[in-house]
Amino acid sequence: MLTDRTGTMTGNDGKIRLTTAQALVRYLCAQHTVVNDETCRLLTGIFAIFGHGNVAGMGEALEDAGDALPVLRAHNEQAMAHSAIAYAKAKKRRQMMACTTSIGPGATNMVTAAAGAHVNRLPVLLLPGDTFANRLPDPVLQQVEDFGDPLVTANDCFRPVSRYWDRISRPEQLLHSLPQAISVLTDPADCGPVTLALPQDVQAEVFDFPVSFFAPRTHHFVRPGADADSLARAADLLRSSKRPLIIAGGGVLYSAAEKELASFAERFGIPVAETQAGKACLHWGHPQNVGAIGVTGTQAANELAESADLVIAIGTRLQDFTTGSGLLVRRPDCAMLSINVCRFDAVKRDALAVCGDAQRSLVELQDRLGAWSADANWSQKAAGLRDEWDRVYAAVTSDTGAARPSDAQVLGVISATFPENATVVCAAGGLPGELHKLWRVSDPDNYHVEYGFSCMGYEIAGGLGVKLALPQRDVVVTVGDGSYLMLNSEIASSVALGVKLIIVLLDNRGFACINRLQTSLGGKPYNNLLASSYTSDTAPPIDFVKHASALGALANKVANLDELATALRQAKNAERTSVIVIDTDPVASTSEGGTWWDVPVAATSDNAAVSAAREAYKNKTQQR
Known about the structure:
By secondary structure, this protein is of the alpha/beta class.
């Protein structure tokens, strides 16, 4: 018999004896993709936190695989999955990572991240350990028992947040499940998280696998085309329009359709608004770019959306922040055209659906439109509104000398310090709204905000994933004190891995964004800011500088915007992760721009302010 690296050849029948874990790892190592005309690994690494449910199975296989599938040690399972998701987003879904955990809390810690990947249509392979398939030692440590169904384990929590889910109860099931898993991870329409639950006894069991199963495979990015009739109807709809507006979503970036979008918008004189996921489709200075759309949008984009006679949604799932909870788009006097590779998203808001890749569809649609263009007055209106918003930007980002600067002013300093070759990372709270409105994007990799799931705690872990994906860029993580306290463990990982981040921690002493929402709806400040959650004697006196230093980062606190600029330049030249803390105003936010967001108000209340807010809410819902 011939000995192979991770198994034993069983003869001349083309079989190799491997454990389930060894076979899984070997198969992953054999998967490749093409990026910029170069063949490279599809899965570039695996985050791992070992426990009794995976250390003897997956751990043994990964150790043996070595550099063929690099292992990265993390400090929190949710965080490492966030990092893997951010990596895939930064790689525009062309490459990805996996995560392995033990059973129980190690597994369920990843559920939140899986939901984020599901919402944002991002690929990640989750490999949680599971209980014994043979059930002989049940209940094992950390096992969740279902009193009526012994097949149910904690890993069933992943079912609703996975695009593909399987429990591998026999080694040979990998022959069917692994190709299915990879097909989902690489499919432009069905892309999302894949969960393969791995019972710990099955991980160590052997099977004689066909050697051919592990032959190298190269997965090519495909561009599904829309059918000719859909394109013809879309062209007719455009030709009948005088005031069209494009809403560009993340699908434009994942399709690498930035140039095609720019060409389409320029040729036909169509203004382009951007969703959170779609921001960076166009350079901020592009004449057709009117900025962010929706609840966190610019005055320019939202005013155009309110008077457009056709909205062209490209690669967006049209969530409520984009559509103003439905009021901003699909009005009776406004038609909707949706270009999306995913049928589920293409048909939303009763749109005329063009189900196809964004890049390919834009080229094919452009060829059908001939000499048509939008009304010249419409293009002039868009240019004027854009100029007005530029003046707003200058006003809200300028230094007023306030004791505590606004988020907008802090972002203005960061943008001025890193005008290019940097990626700003954020996720939740008030910062994403300010970034969406105000960040001036220089290139498609300049902006990375997770706002589909708006997951507090994503920021630092996400920054780690972005830096792993784009090591040549400066990665600037903007995070509020609330999100920082939720999940900061990957500062230690970034230091240990030598993956330098620049973290700007804006300390407004609590959950200021929700406090502002609470008071805007008539409520009193309650349980959001630390001052309204504790007495003055019990409010925690948090020293973020000492905390970040204890995790291995360089850390300091700055007193004003000038000191912030200096600290940012120092962090840019530093050898390891830096955390810069600055106190910010919890009340100030950019009031210009934006539109309505449907947040229900109590139908009855003894608080007169709440009752007044309820009347305003009723008026808005009646409009819809």
